[in-house]
Amino acid sequence: MVVRHRKKSRHLRGTKMHGIRTKRKAGQRGGRGRAGIGKRAGHKKELYRHSEKFLGPVGFVSVYQKKGLHHKAINVRDIDKNLEALQKKNLIEKTKEGYKVDISKLGFDKLIGSGKVSNKLLITTKLASPKAIQKVEEAGGKVEVLQKEELLEENSSSEEN
Question: What is the pTM of this model?
Answer without folding.
Answer: 0.53
